[in-house]
Amino acid sequence: MIRFEHVTKVYDRTSRPALDDIDIEIDRGDFAFLVGASGSGKSTFIRLVLREDRASSGSVHVAGQNVARIPSWRVPRLRRGIGVVFQDFRLLPNKDVFGNVAFAMQVIGKSRAVIRQTVPEVLRTVGLEGKGKRLPHELSGGEQQRVAIARAIVNRPGILLADEPTGNLDPATSVGIMNVLDRVNQNGTTVVMATHDGDIVNSMRRRVIELSAGRVVRDEAAGEYTAMIPHVRADGSRELLPAGQAIAPFDTEEDEA
Ligand SMILES: Nc1ncnc2c1ncn2[C@@H]1O[C@H](COP(=O)(O)OP(=O)(O)OP(=O)(O)O)[C@@H](O)[C@H]1O
């Protein structure tokens, strides 16, 4: 569904690539977490899928299409097949819940009859039945994110990209949002979620793609937030430690040198 072939992205006026020779495939129906420190390239990955930016080299394929070959006038059609959810919800403040979701259908020319039928169905999917007339400021953060997800999926995209969707939410509310994303995935949508939320990654046990300085340093089918890597103790015995901690003995040696 999403294929990166040796993709490198170097932004103007920077020397270090934001993405460095990324070669990865995310299949139809997958659920993949993108993890990695701030600045490791997660948002850049998402921007390239949406063709908000172009790869400096290599190619990005979405639903079988090389996005660099799509003429500008057809980019909106590419994006119509991709729902996007952000950390800060980005709802229209003067439209109610129904209006926010309906708007995504109006802009692609859906009829009023179809909108009237579809929006309540989608609001039910995200757990917001009966809240169609509320304005965004009358909703909790978790409810606002549910509206954002409803809006992202109402046109049945093949892909849902979520950039830190639980970043502004407390842990309990985040679990509710993950249940919604899981349901969306079970309905066949490929979900890619960039996150710093270790608890969520560890509880979901889905594919984990870890970026570090623009490179894929880990890609596990049912991974955890932090990789556990083998570490040899001074006495020769072995233990599993989080990747960051396992390099400590080498730092010590350097300090002494
Ligand atoms: N428009 C830009 N111009 C120049 N450099 C950029 C631009 N956008 C991102 N970068 C740089 O590219 C690298 C990757 O940034 P990116 O935003 O993709 O990281 P991220 O993993 O999403 O970080 P975060 O977790 O903080 O959102 C960083 O070094 C960043 O400074």
UniProtKB/TrEMBL annotation:
<dbReference type="InterPro" id="IPR027417">
    <property type="entry name" value="P-loop_NTPase"/>
</dbReference>
<dbReference type="InterPro" id="IPR003439">
    <property type="entry name" value="ABC_transporter-like_ATP-bd"/>
</dbReference>
<keyword id="KW-1003">Cell membrane</keyword>
<dbReference type="InterPro" id="IPR003593">
    <property type="entry name" value="AAA+_ATPase"/>
</dbReference>
<keyword id="KW-0472">Membrane</keyword>
<comment type="similarity">
    <text>Belongs to the ABC transporter superfamily.</text>
</comment>
<comment type="function">
    <text>Part of the ABC transporter FtsEX involved in cellular division.</text>
</comment>
<dbReference type="InterPro" id="IPR017871">
    <property type="entry name" value="ABC_transporter-like_CS"/>
</dbReference>
<dbReference type="InterPro" id="IPR005286">
    <property type="entry name" value="Cell_div_FtsE"/>
</dbReference>
<feature type="domain" description="ABC transporter">
    <location>
        <begin position="2"/>
        <end position="238"/>
    </location>
</feature>
<protein>
    <recommendedName>
        <fullName>Cell division ATP-binding protein FtsE</fullName>
    </recommendedName>
</protein>
<comment type="subunit">
    <text>Homodimer. Forms a membrane-associated complex with FtsX.</text>
</comment>
<dbReference type="GO" id="GO:0051301">
    <property type="term" value="P:cell division"/>
</dbReference>
<keyword id="KW-0131">Cell cycle</keyword>
<keyword id="KW-0067">ATP-binding</keyword>
<keyword id="KW-0132">Cell division</keyword>
<dbReference type="InterPro" id="IPR015854">
    <property type="entry name" value="ABC_transpr_LolD-like"/>
</dbReference>
<dbReference type="Pfam" id="PF00005">
    <property type="entry name" value="ABC_tran"/>
</dbReference>
<dbReference type="GO" id="GO:0005524">
    <property type="term" value="F:ATP binding"/>
</dbReference>
<keyword id="KW-0547">Nucleotide-binding</keyword>
